[in-house]
Specification:
About 65% of the residues lie in helices and about 0% in strands. By secondary structure, the protein is an all-alpha fold. The chain is flat and about 60 Å long.
C-alpha cells in the first residue's frame, strides 16, 4: 500500500537565499543511462526470442504463445530504443540551432 506524504511548505523547497545547488537527479538518471538500459533490454529480449524460436523449432516448446510474447517484447523494446534515439537527436539538433 502506498503511504501518503504530506505536502511540504513552499519555502522549504524554494529558499530565499542561494544555497549550494542540490543534485536534482538521482544517480542513473541521465540520458546515457536510460539509453544504455534500452540497449540492454533489446539485447535481453532478443536472446529470449531466439531461445523461444529454438525451443519451437526443436519441438520443446509446449506453449507457442510464449514465442509470440517474446517476439512482441522484442519489438516493443526495439521501438522504445528507436524513440529514445530520435528524442536524443531532436534535442541535440535543437541545441545546435540556438544562436549565442
Amino acid at each position: 500500500m502506498n503511504v501518503l506524504t504530506p505536502i511540504s511548505p513552499l519555502w522549504d523547497t524554494m529558499p530565499l537565499t542561494k544555497a549550494e545547488p542540490k543534485q536534482t537527479h538521482a544517480p542513473g538518471d541521465t540520458f546515457a543511462d536510460f539509453f544504455g538500459a534500452a540497449v540492454e533490454a533489446v539485447r535481453q529480449t532478443d536472446e529470449e526470442k531466439a531461445h523461444a524460436q529454438y525451443l519451437l523449432a526443436t519441438g520443446q516448446l509446449d506453449n507457442p504463445a510464449e514465442l509470440q510474447l517474446a517476439t512482441t517484447k522484442y519489438e516493443m523494446s526495439v521501438s522504445m530504443m528507436v524513440q529514445l534515439r530520435n528524442k536524443g537527436l531532436e534535442a541535440f539538433n535543437e541545441l545546435m540551432r540556438i544562436s549565442l
